[in-house]
Every structure is written in structure tokens, then in C-alpha cells.
Amino acid sequence: MTVSVGWYVGLGAILFSIGFVGVLIRRNVLIMLMCVELMLNASNLTLVSYARQLKDIGGQVDVFFVLVVAAAEVVVGLAIVVSIFRKRLNATADDISSLKG
Amino acid sequence: MLHAVVLIPLLPLFGAFTLAIFGRKIGEPKAGWFATLCVFGSFVATVVTYIGLLDSKGINRSFDENLFTWMNVGTFHVNVGFLADPLSLTMALFVTGVSALIHLYSIEYMHKDKDFPKFFMYLNLFVTSMLVLVLGSSLLMTFVGWEGVGVCSYFLISFWFERPSAASAGKKAMIVNRIADVGFILAMFLCVKSFGSLDYKVIFASTNLATKGTVTAIVLLAFLGAMGKSAQFPLFGWLADAMEGPTPVSALIHAATMVTAGVYLMVRLNPLLELSPDASHVIAIVGIITAFVAAAAGTSQDDIKKVLAYSTVSQLGYMFIGVGTGDYVGAIFLMVTHAFYKALLFLSSGSVIHGMNDEQNLKLMGALRKLMPVTAVAFFVGWMAIAGVPPFAGFWSKGDVLLHAFEESPILWFFGVATAGLTSYYMGREYSLAFLGDERWKYMASKKAKKKAKKFEISLDEHVPHPHDPTYKMLFPIQGLAVLAILGGVLNLPFASSLHILEHFLSPVIGSNIPHYKVASGTVQWVLGIVDAVVAVGGGFLAYRIWSKDAFNPNLEPEFLANAWYLDKSLDTVVAKSGTKVANFSATVIDPKIIDGTVRGIAVATLAVGRGFRKLASGFVRREALIIAGGTVALIIFAGIRGGW
After folding, report:
1. Which residues of B touch A100 (CB under 8 A)?
2. How far apart are CA B608 and CA B618, in angstroms?
3. Nearest CA to B276 among B187, B169, B164?
4. B-chain residues within 8 Å CB-CB of A35?
5. CB contact, 8 Å: B611 with chain A?
6. E strand residue ranges, B220-298
7. Residues paired with B141 in a beta bridge
8. Which of B309, B308, B314, B379 is nearest to B344 (CA)?
9. Is A83 an interface residue toward B (CB < 8 Å)?
């Protein structure tokens, strides 16, 4: 029995929504970063599913790009988070608003 | 031998470059002799080319020397090349000849000037440009020379630029000429559009490509250029001011050569003029107005050089009457003889100015005949020649032009003869004031000198003028030109067809356009000639009777003539003053309010928009994430609707 592509896309959509809501409602910066990762991987899943469905390798190639960018993003993002925590303890996302226009 | 044509403009160019680089080292007077030699060499090259040209006959008597292609745009080519034909060589012969004499004269005249080598550098550069102008094989080459002589004229009018009047006179000449040059440039554009070329030969071979209206437009636009360069009504004010330059410059550039460039251009374009009688009529009318107006202004000038300046304008008017009535040979004939006698008059007046310690006011002269005998005789010859007293050169050339004016319309002829009378009168006045009458300069000059001596604590004797004839360097050119002014008429005597030397020589260029006499039979010609002579002698005699007795006749020098019919002043009011107003308006209103306002308005608006959008950047990550998410959703919905969801 084969699992139809709809399941995969549905799973991707659910994962994406979880990540999306997480970014919007959680204040802990680390959790928010994790949620972003979740959204990226949800879209990776969707890309792979469609690539298989449409017999187009392009979608899978895109996944590699996303993975590389995500890795780089984690490195930079975590570094920023660590340096913020060094300056002030217990900082939530809402406290870090020095980019206010 | 014909290839010597390249040397004609190159020799003075070489002189100019050498003097520009080593001028100070060569110094006075060697720089002057060197420059004179270069121009004389150019004269020799012209003679060699001329002899070479005599080998071929008729239409074939012309030689094209193409040096290289200047520009090559699609089907449009311009070559840097020289055209040696009877017309350009006639011009080149008298330009180089008169220039060489005036260079020689300048060596003494400019003696002790601090910029002696620079002066000769400019003179050589001028001769180069003038030769490019007359020898150029296309309208564009002529234009290069045209602008070259313009810029040299500017340098030389403002040569003594420490004097504000000289500096502004130079600027005036430049600006007036620039306005007229617009006409020349537009004429070239029209030529390219209608004939696809600027080459004279190509244009004249394809005149049938253009409609009559286009040809008229080309001729009139080129004539606008000629009106500026040749100081025609109403653009002649600059030439009177150009007398601020050194006298040899006035003689060479503002009398003998450069100002005739407009006449040359019109004669060169004669195949086009023949196709457009309307344009020819306009030229003749402008010519007669200029001749009369300027001659009248000449009767009331006090400056010895200003009389000659207005006289030049008036004579140029005659040349344009010749051009306008189809008498191209007469125009060139008058141009050549005018170069002789007007250069003679200017050089003689330079000798007077030199002898009088730089005094130019005729009212402060008088009785110089005994003290400067050679100059006086030379000036007398110049007077007779320009007045048209037989057998001097002016009689034949002016008679030729007036004859054709009579053919065209007796009114034109009448004003021409009236102007001839005025010409003889103002020259007679000038001669009488300078060389006859009382020694007014003794009283006036001593008064001036006393003042000067007191001011600078120098001995009085040094500054009382001791009028005297100059030495050979200035006298030889004067004498040479005097001989030419007497004998110049033999170039084209009217008595028999075989004596029309200039006409026969120029016929390949003028071609079938030589007019044939209709009304004027032999008898009429004799009568007209006698009328000319009587008017010339009468005008001169009248002036002699009035002005040798009393130098002060205010009634005969009305204010409006002394101011040249207030033409300059009215132009000043209409053009310059209103132009200043426009400039002021744009400086105080348009620039700060409209242009600056627009620029500042954009800055202010940008700032305001920025301030508005700044509020969106709250700095709260989550809110911004929501905005991004909302935007994404909105984009998806938008794309969905556009995609016909």
C-alpha cells in the first residue's frame, strides 16, 4: 500500500502551522528558533513530496539549499541568542526590541 | 605643384605653434620677423598653387586635396580637404599678401609691447584659420576656419585686456557672432538633410534634390551667419567696438580679411543663390540698408578708427548688394580692392596714432600733413580709392556693383550712389580733420601732458607728441598697399571683354551665373560711371571745404549719427536688458523656488513617508513575524485570485 502524496503534504501543512503559531505566541527566543526550524523542515517535506509526485528533481535540489541555509541560520541565530543571554538573563523576545524605529 | 595647397595653411600654423611654445625665448623682434616669414612663405605657396592651377582650363580648373576622412557616419562623410579653385585662390592670394604686409607693419607698431610674441602667435593662428576658411572643400571645413577666425578675433580685440573696454568689446564680438553662427549651423543641417553631404562639389552637383523653399532657407540661414561675421545691419555694433584692438588687427581682421568671410561664403554658395531670387533680394536689401546706415554713422565719429570701422561696414554692405544682385564677380572685385585700400587706410591711421602718442580723437589732431608727409599721401590715396574717384581702384569695383544694382532696380542704385557720396564725404572729413586745418593737438595735447607730467612727476617734453612718419617697417606696407589701391582696378576693367581678367578667372566657379547686361548699354555705363565720379568728387570736395576750415560743426554731427542711429543702445535695451531681466528672474524665482523647491519637496516628502513607515517597525519580533505572515497570506490570496482560483 502506498501512502498518497496528500498525507505528506497534509503533515507538512500541520507541521508548518505548529511552527508558525509557535513563532507567534511563544516568547522564549530558543523555542522561537526551534519553531522556525520546524517551519523550514515542513516546507522541505512538502518540496520532497511534490518532487516525487511530479517526477521533478528540482524540488529535492531546493531541499538541499534550504538545509544549508537552515544550518547557517542556526549558527548565526544561536550565536546571537547566546550573546544576548550573556548580557541579560531571562530575556524574552519582547524585551529585545532595540530595533524599534 | 598643386600639392603646395597644403602648405598654404600649414606654414602659418607651424609659425603659431612655434611661437606658442618658444615665443618668449625667440623674443622681440625675432618673433615678429619669424611670423612674417611664415605668412610670406604661405603667400609663395599660394602663388605656386596658382601657377599650377593655370595649367588646366575651364571647369577642370580646380584641385581637390583630400587629406583624410574626418568622420564617417553611415552614408555621411566629411573629409579634411582643401579645394583649390579660382575663387579660393583669389581669396588666398590677397589674404596671404595683405597679411604678410600687415605682419611686417606690426613688428614696428607692437614694438615694446610686453606680449609681443603672443601677438604674432595670434596673428599667425588667425591667418591659418582664414586660409582654412577659404580653402576648405566643404561647408564644415569652412565652418572650422569660420570659428577659428572668430576666436582669434576675440583674442586680438581683447589683446589689451587690462582695459575693461577692450575686454568687453571682445566679448561682444564673440557673442554677436555666436548668435549669427546658429544660422550657419542650421544651414549645414539642412544641407545634410537635403543633399546628404557638406562637400561643395557634391552640393552643387545635386541642387535639384532640394525644393525651392529649402534652398531659400539654406541661403537665408547661411546669410544670417554671414550677417554676423560681415557685420551687416542690425548686427554691426560689434565691429565698431572691435576697434579696441591694436590697429594692425583692425586693418587685417576687421577690414581686409575676416569680415569679408561672409561675402566669400555667399559667393561660394552662388549656385544655390541663383535658385532662390527671394533670398537674393533679401541679401541686396540688407546690403543697401547696411551700406547707407553705416555710411551715415561714419560722418559723425570722432575716433579716427571708428570712422574707418563704419566705413568697413558700409563697404561690406556694397559687397552684399553685389551678391544680392547676382554680381558675384563685382562682390569679389570690391572685396579685393577694399582689402587694399581699407588696409591702407587703417595702417595709415595706425601711423597717425603711433605718431600722436596713442591719441585717436580726430578733434585733437590737425595739420599733420607737413609732419607726416608719407602717411598723408597714403591716406589721401586711400580716400580717393574708397570714394571711387577714377582711376583709383574703388571706382572700378564700386562702379561694377552699382551698375548691377541699376540693372536690378534704380532705387537700389540711387541709395548706392547716395552712400558713395557719403563715403567720399566722411573720408574727406577724416582726412581734413587729421591732416589739414589748425594744429589743435598742440594746445590740447600740451594741456593733457601737463596734467600727466604733474601726476607722474616726469618731464613735460616726453609727453608732448612729436608727430613723425614711422620707419620702413611700417612705411613699406603702407606704400605697397597704396600702389595696390591705385592700380587694383586693372583686375577687372570694364572697357573690353578681354580686360575682364577677374571675371574670366572666376568664371569656372561662378559659371553660367554671370549676368548679362539687359538695360545698361555702353552709353548707360558711361553715364553711370560719370555720375559715380561726380558724386565722389563732389562729396569729397564738400567735406574738404567744411572741415579743413573748422573742426567743430556740431550741426553736421548729430547725436543720433554719432551713436550710430542708437542701434546699439536699442539692441542693448531690447535684447541685453530684457535678457538680464530674464536671467535675474530665473536666478531669484525659477532657480530657488521652482527648481530648488522641487528638489527640496522630494526630500521633504521622502522624509514624511519615512516617518510614517517608521511606526510599523516596532522592534517586537513576534509582531513583525505576524506582519510578514499576513503579507504572505495576502500575496497567496492575490496570486490565487489572479490565477482564476
Report:
1. 617-619
2. 18
3. B187
4. none
5. no
6. none
7. none
8. B379
9. no
Contact A24, A89 (CB under 8 A): no
DSSP SS3 for B68: strand
Predicted confidence (pLDDT) per residue in B509-568, tens digit: 776 555 555 555 678 888 888 988 999 899 889 988 888 887 787 778 888 888 888 888
Residue at grid coordinates 548679362: B516
| B300 neighbors B270 (Cβ within 8 angstroms) | no
User: Among the residues of B356-489, which ranges form H helices?
Assistant: 373-387, 393-408, 410-435, 440-456, 472-487
In the CATH hierarchy, which top-level class contains the domain A5-90?
Answer: mainly alpha
**Which residues from chain A sit within 8 angstroms of residue B610, using beta carbons?**
none
Nearest by CB to B619, which of A20, A24, A99? A99
Q: Where are the beta strands (DSSP E) in B560-610?
A: none
Q: Which residue is listed with cell 529585545? A: A96
Residues of chain B in contact with residue A94, where contact means CB-CB under 8 angstroms, are 620-622
Task: Pick the closest to residue B474 from B580, B611, B349 (CA basis).
Answer: B349
- Chain B CA closest to residue A98: B619
At B302 the pLDDT is 86
Q: Give the phi and the psi of residue B470 in degrees, each rounded to 5.
A: -75, 180
Q: Which residues lie closer than 8 Å to B380 by C-beta, 6 or more apart? A: B431, B435
CB B492 within 8 A of CB B400: yes
Identify whether the C-beta of residue B421 lies closer than 8 Å to the C-beta of residue B402. Answer: no
Residue B549's region, left for phi above 0, alpha for psi from -120 to 50, else beta, is alpha
Which residues lie below 8 Å from residue B530, measured CB to CB, with a gap of 6+?
A: none
Q: Determine the residue type at B603.
A: A
With bands split at pLDDT 50, 70 and 90, how would you rate the model's confidence at B74?
Answer: confident
Q: 3-state DSSP: chain A helix, strand, coil percent, rounded to 5?
A: 75, 0, 25
Q: Provide the grid cell at B514.
A: 554671370
Determine the Cα–Cα distance for residues B388 and B333; give it in Å rounded to an integer.
13
Q: Give every CB contact of residue B527 below 8 A, 6+ residues apart in sequence.
A: none
Please indicate whether, in this complex, the C-beta atoms of A24 and B626 are within 8 angstroms of each other: yes
Q: By CA distance, what is A28's nearest residue in B? A: B622
The C-alpha angle A47, A22, A74, rounded to 5 degrees, equals: 65
Neighbouring residues of B33: CB distance < 8 A, sequence distance ≥ 6: B107
Say if B588 is an interface residue toward chain A (CB within 8 Å). Answer: no
Dihedral sign, Cα of residue B357, residue B363, residue B367, residue B369: positive
Q: Cβ contacts of residue B612 below 8 Å, gap of 6+?
A: none
Per residue in B375-414, pLDDT (tens digit) is 999 999 999 999 988 888 889 888 888 888 888 888 999 9
Cell 599667425 belongs to residue: B124
Kindly indicate whether the ipTM for this predicted assembly is greater than 0.85, answering yes or no: no
Residue A20 at interface with chain B, using a CB cutoff of 8 Å: yes
